[in-house]
Amino acid sequence: MILLRQLLGDVLRRLRVRQGRTLREVSTLARVSLGYLSEVERGQKEASSELLASICGALGVPLSQVLREVSDQFALAELQAAPVLADVPEHERLALSETVPGSISDSVFPEVKDMVAA
């Protein structure tokens, strides 16, 4: 199962490391304990929206950008976990995508399709 908190933690850690910042630095700026920030980055704790905004502020990154990256990774993970329909005729795939809850249409997320194809 794909856990949102793990994807969110991965994105936050990647941003922090990319900036060459330490957990201590970011935790001080975000006014959150070092241990809690570490648990958020490892996907062990669910961060509130207020805490996420504070961490993003400390990283100098808009919360919307972080959520967009998480959303893209979540969509990619869902697609990778989906059954392969390559051998199913296109008209049947279209009918299936209309009846399966949560299925992603190519026209809705073309950039995700491109990421999977790469």
Structural features, described:
Helices cover 67% and strands 0% of the residues. By secondary structure, it is mainly alpha-helical. α1 crosses α5. The two termini are 23 Å apart. About 13% of the residues have low confidence.
Q: What is the compact description of this entry?
A:
By secondary structure, the protein is an all-alpha fold. Helix content is 67%, strand content 0%.
How would you summarize the topology of this molecule?
Elements: H1 4-18, H2 23-30, H3 34-41, H4 49-59, H5 63-81, H6 90-99, H7 110-117
Helix pairs in contact: 1-5, 2-4, 5-7
Distance between the termini: 23 Å
Q: What order do the helices and strands follow?
A: HHHHHHH
Q: Bin the strand percentage.
A: under 5%
Which structural class fits the helix and strand makeup?
mainly alpha
**Rg on CA atoms, Å:** 18 Å
Catalogue the unreliable spans: 99-113
The main β sheet shows up as: none
Mean pLDDT equals 81
> How many DSSP E strands?
0
Number of helices: 7
Basic shape = elongated
The helix fraction, in percent, is: 55-70%
